[in-house]
Amino acid sequence: MAVLAVLQPLRKRLVAGATVVTIAVLLRPKLQRWWRRRRWAREQDRLATLVSFDDAPAVAALVSRLDASEPCVVAGVALVEDRRRAVAVAIAIELPSMKRIDGAVVPVATSLPYEPGYVGFRAAPFLARALGALKVDVAVALVRGHGFLHPRKFGVACHAGLVAGVPTCGVADSLLRVDGVDEAAIVSRARASLQLGEALPIVGASGIVWGAALRATVEPNFRPTYVSAGPGVSLATAVKLAVACRRYRVPEPVRLAELEGRVALRERVVD
């Protein structure tokens, strides 16, 4: 009995210690994710200060050629994934014909997880590499994802453009939560007021114009394409580029990038 009396407190301490260890093991992934997101958010805030959302000279020159219906080259880039692999794809097209003139597919090898709002850390280096692999010079690229339309004004389109050193803008199918923007209300307003090729501003509770909702299809119950500014590309120019590349809902060079990415994954062109 005396021995049991001595061992009982020790047993309780061991059980308590094991419980603490178990809790720590269970919480570790959540703590790691919390710390990673916090660190990435700070880095996005810093990088956003490096971005100018005005038209770069080369972009302004391209817009002038576009307005004059002169041939010009734009690119589209996208990250395409299946369950096991991913590729970054860049496609260059000529406007106004929308003829494909070049393309590049780059395998993605990263251990970083997918985190909504922080996709650039995972995707931007490979999107930039795909842009750099094009054999033609491009003055601007449309990126699958958001640019300025982001909680910290630094979505994947900004991240990719900054890494690549190429002016970029964002095009996306859905909105991130930012500044009280109500996507359902925007969709309703767009369907009620927009004609084909028109866009309406996306204004937050603060009064900031975060981006634009573009009508790119004729269907009455269409979903808008969300366009946003990026490094060296103003919102007005981003909308003009998206309209100029309009063939389906997704701007043509981005659509082609996604199609070719799916083909590359299916046919195991890259591993």
From TrEMBL:
Main location: cytoplasm
Protein location: Cytoplasm
Keywords: Cytoplasm, Endonuclease, Hydrolase, Nuclease
GO molecular function annotations of the record: RNA endonuclease activity producing 5'-phosphomonoesters, hydrolytic mechanism; single-stranded RNA binding
Organism superkingdom: Eukaryota
A Gene Ontology cellular-component term: nucleolus
Pfam families referenced in this protein's UniProt entry, alphabetically: Endonuclease_5
Matches recorded under InterPro entries: Endonuclease-V
GO biological process: DNA repair
Matches recorded under PANTHER family: ENDONUCLEASE V
Name under which the protein is recorded: Endonuclease V
Organism whose genome encodes this protein: Pelagomonas calceolata
